[in-house]
Amino acid sequence: MTDIYDVIIAGAGPAGGQAARDLASRGYDVCVLETESEDEFPSRSNKSTAGTFPSTMASFNIPDEVVMNFTDDVVLESPNHHFRRHQPGAVLEFADFKNWLVDESRADGAEYRFGARVSKPVMEGGEIVGVQYNGGEEVRGDIVIDATGPSAPLAKELGVCELKREKQAIGIEFEFEGMDMNPDGYADLRDTMMLRLDHDIAPGGYSWIFHTGEDTAKVGVCYLQNEGHRKNAQTGFTIDDYLQYWADTDPRFENAKRIEGIQHRGSAHIQLPSRMSTDNFMAIGDTVPTVDPLWGEGIDKCMRSGRMAAATADRVLTHSERDTSASELAIYDKLWHDRVAPKAKNRLFMTEMLYRASNERYDEFMEDLHNISQNRLESANKGNPLAMLRLLKFEDISILLSTAKHWFSK
């Protein structure tokens, strides 16, 4: 077993798995270090939801075999109203999906070391040349990629990511059976992915129900530790309490029960990354996260960042005299901003504004959406400033100003 590789990847999630898949298919020697043991991978603690759209399925050739349920619509919900949009999608079985990525990259020669907890970079001459894991074990490579998510032990040590706790999002999800997906007075959620804006359930965030077939669904809550959360949080409530409160008060859960043993927890830092690469190093996936304001699309963003990192590595490793300096790997930063998260600053600003709005404004927003063209909504979601402004009303000026004040003060 060699300890010198072209590329070392820390983390075998969607971003790391996709980077390994692309690089191995191009013939590079790739080693992936994954904290979890192979017989437990992926563990139940891994975050899930795993809803995505046809563009992602096609772009990455994701097979139908890892899909729990194909959906027809996306529903946005507020405390008293909802908006339905025809948007075909797929709810993935997250464990099967991640194992598929491992199998795909292994088939092309990628090596996986499970039970390998990455602790810090191996440095020489002020540059990263490898990774230390499980205490004192080392592995070296021309390029190191951090795909460990919010823990980011390599990116933090190298000063690439400055992840702030105040921007951290935390989430919990269970899978339920016995759900009523079409009760009176609520949207029909059969073959649908639903996202709900409601501070009583998710102060400063959102909750969701993703139909996974028959009477089963993935149900979760996620919120940011932001101004919206501080203003609307219930004293003493944990994220588990909010999910339980929802299940106790929503008729869709009247006869539902949690499927034993299936629980997912996760976190992410929703903030603008200052940079994503340096000498011999790139950070991908939830180590440098980004989201769409309305649809989320976390899996797509992770996989695209993995693909852009692989393309960058391919470019700099192709030449006989390999140049993996910061100036060459900065190509990845450009690709990230162009193809992973274009207009990232605008979209993050829109996301923060959205989570500061009141429940009453969420109800109005659902009503407004019925009179907004899909093109304008999609343009706003992509960060077009004019389209974003056209979604606002006079009463939103205070939210706009408070969000702007917070941004400039930070």
UniProtKB/TrEMBL annotation:
Stored InterPro entries: Dggglyphlred_Halo, FAD-bd, FAD/NAD-bd_sf, Geranylgeranyl_reductase
UniProt cross-references to Pfam families, sorted A to Z? FAD_binding_3
Hey, what's the signal peptide range on this chain?
A: none
Where does the record place the FAD-binding domain? 5-302
Q: Which organism is it from?
A: Haloferax larsenii
SUPFAM superfamilies given in the database record: FAD/NAD(P)-binding domain
Residue stretches in coiled coil: none
Under Gene3D superfamilies, the record lists: FAD/NAD(P)-binding domain (3.50.50.60)
Q: What is this protein called?
A: NAD(P)/FAD-dependent oxidoreductase
This protein's superkingdom? Archaea
